[in-house]
Design a protein that fits this description.
about 425 residues, mainly alpha, about 0% strand, globular
Amino acid sequence: MNKLFNLFEKIFTIISFIHYSGGPLLLILSGGVSEGEEGDDATFPLISLILIVIYFITFSLLLLRWKKVFSVILRGGSIWLLFGLATCSIIWSYSPELTRTRVIALIGTLLFSLYFASRYTLKEQLNLLGWVFGIIVVTSLFYCILLPKYGLMSGIHTGAWRGIYNHKNVLGKIMVLSSVVFLLLAMAAKKHRWIFWNLLSGSIILLLLSRSSSSLINLLILVGILLFLHVLFMHILRWNYMLIIPTLIVILLFIVILYSFLATSGEQVAGIFGKDLTLTGRTAFWPLILDKISEKPWLGYGFGAFWQGLEGPSAYVWNASAFKAPNSHNGYLDLCLELGLTGLSIYLFKFVSSVHRAIALIRSVSTPDALWPVLLLSYIVLSNLTESSLVLQNNLLWTLQTSTFLSLYRSPLNKVTDPLLK
């Protein structure tokens, strides 16, 4: 009976993550509509109903292990302040009803993150994510090759692969995570390693054919971080002290040279990817957003209440800019708009403290799964420079981020003997 129940939990977790990733139900219900075509902004009650079911099952599973869950809650720290601030923002929100609805969804998302963190170890989490992304990769290839009406975009992005998602950029972002997960699993595998290498290859193929240049750049940076951490913690820090300093100086000089090259040849580099240094017009309206932040700098306009087109405070940005943006295309700006500098400060404190523990974990546990928290948190930073998924309900990236915050503070990690944790 326990085996069947454990199997149910794993299947539930996998299906929930796929749904949080945004596919494939939205694509199917929309009939394969692409960006710029009629109906691409439609909403579907079935998707909301499935989310409610996920919330209910998650809450029930949490109750079954309430003691373990409670111990994780006690170690959550400032993450609860951030959720509390979002909830309290109903009071001063520009649109209280909208904020209330989105806070409820945010709490539902938090419950799933809490379940994932309290139920599974980091190693188990990585293995489950392997199943999640394996299903996504195989299904996306099936859609693109055999169901091109759904798997390929039309309109302004004709021919770009989108897999089981409604936009090529969504596939690109998911494939970055998929590639990192399968790379780590391949490094850790003692048998059937070829499966992970093949799935990694499939992830990279989908990423390239999605034509998402920002996702490709992010993946290259993450692979560089992975190699750097592997060399630093597995080799350099075990060398003689006299060898460590010159090596770190060489690495620092390389970073300075690379930065100087990008600063002087940025236009040419951006042009290779069909971009310009204004990030396809995004930076042009960021000063307008800063104007709105300065009007309510400390508490913002309420969680999820700013971007309402011409019906909300975002009307100022829309009227003053040719870019009718659904968000700031920057997670940090959006967090300031919604919860002010107070919310941003709480978030950054939690983020930095989590990075601190994640690095300590690598120093103390020499297994590939120990690299996952640092790589995920690095991707959070990279992706939120041009997209907005820092604090967002029913979102895969925010779900993984919150569960990682909580997982790093589970009791087994407190036994790690590393000076960084003291």
